[in-house]
Amino acid sequence: MAELDDQDQVVDPPPYFLCPISLQIMKDPVTIASGITYDRESIEKWLFSDKHKTCPVSHIVLSDFDVTPNHTLRRVIQAWCTVNASKGVERIPTPKPPVDREQVVRILADAKLSPFSQKNCLCRLRSIAAANESNKRCMESAGVVEFLAGVVCNSTTNMEYGLEDYAFDDMSANSADEALIILHKLQISESSLKFLLSNNGGIFISTLTKILQNRSYSSRSYSVMLLNSMFEVADQIQIQNLTADFFIEIIQILKDQISKQASKSALKLLIAVSSSFRNRVKAVQAGAVPVLIDLLLDLDSSENKRLCEMILVLLDQLCGCADGRAELLNHAAGIAVVSKKILRISTVGSEKAVGILWSIARFSGSQSVVQEMVRIGVVTKLCFLLQVVGAGVKAKEKAKEILKLHGRTWRNSSCLPSTLRSAYPQ
């Protein structure tokens, strides 16, 4: 066999050149408090995006999350790449150093000079945020979150009052959109999210609600995603102070189906704020129940399991109030589509679907509703559920309660297959 030419040889880098997380050659090696070196992008994602508190290799709990550039190792890696360039190894460029706080403060000061300076500032901030996680944390500490919130609020107010200078009006809209994008990409901390929630008595929430009413799909998507992050850290007072318009616009996001990410954020947001009974009523009055049922009808359970699961979680919450149950019963496909999702999504999905049916049977089980449940196969599905191994203990317990509740009507019904009558609980 002929020997391989130099250019055909595969060159394996030394193991210590590889990031322990990505197993790729490190472009920007940094060392963390445990003494182990990683590629900056991988370890910052581990620590700040994924919010781990340990070293990935040693599993030591970290006392701080500072990363220190390993310039010596980077130069060694670059030298090795240069030596092996003839064998197809690409040289790794020297990474840009992370931005410092003073640089960010100067950019924010420049933004105050004119609307055009502000636009340039936003472009620079977006570029800095995209570079690495260190930049994002530096930007937050320098006051970028407060600045961006101000841009969104001021720009939205300018457009609301209809400025005569339409070119400036368009610039305000673009500035608000850009600020929303940066706020989303910053993945800001809990303390900054709480600042946005309480800013000037909730003015930022009101501003985002206005953006949901009047702006592009892109702006509405970023607004609902930001609102979702904010209400993950909200207190009960902030949750209970939401307006009817807020619910109308969030539900409209679901109705318009802007994107899967926007729909997931809207559902998560509604689930979070529906911990309050008052908000459940507001959501129902805003038309949530028929929209959710229509979504269940349209979505393929196998391709959209998580979305279907969240819809059932929210419907279960909304059926905890009389208005919610009435809306579900008013929809021609309400009971049927909920029953159909049992055993088709997940254990949690089945549990929530059975929970919805339990609320209907327990609190809204009129004679006509009870007859409808057996006619469209709900009783058959519940009996079948009891026989399925691994269907979930909670779902089975609820199913038994429902079947016992209306046993006199259902047990000997001609609509119930004879093969399932033995499964009917006594």
From TrEMBL:
Name any one Pfam family assigned in the record. Answer: U-box
Sorted keywords for this record are: Transferase, Ubl conjugation pathway
Q: What is its EC number?
A: 2.3.2.27
* Pathway info: Protein modification; protein ubiquitination
Entry keyword annotation includes Transferase: yes
Q: Name one GO biological process term.
A: protein ubiquitination
One example GO MF annotation:
ubiquitin protein ligase activity
Coiled-coil intervals: none
Q: U-box domain: which residues?
A: 12-87
What is this enzyme's catalytic activity, as reactions? S-ubiquitinyl-[E2 ubiquitin-conjugating enzyme]-L-cysteine + [acceptor protein]-L-lysine = [E2 ubiquitin-conjugating enzyme]-L-cysteine + N(6)-ubiquitinyl-[acceptor protein]-L-lysine
**Claim: ATP-binding is one of the keywords in the record:** no
InterPro entries per the record? Answer: ARM-like, ARM-type_fold, ARM_PUB, PUB22/23/24-like, RING-Ubox_PUB, Ubox_domain, Znf_RING/FYVE/PHD
Task of the protein: Functions as an E3 ubiquitin ligase.
Q: Which protein, by its recorded name, is this? A: U-box domain-containing protein
Species source reads Cucumis melo var. makuwa
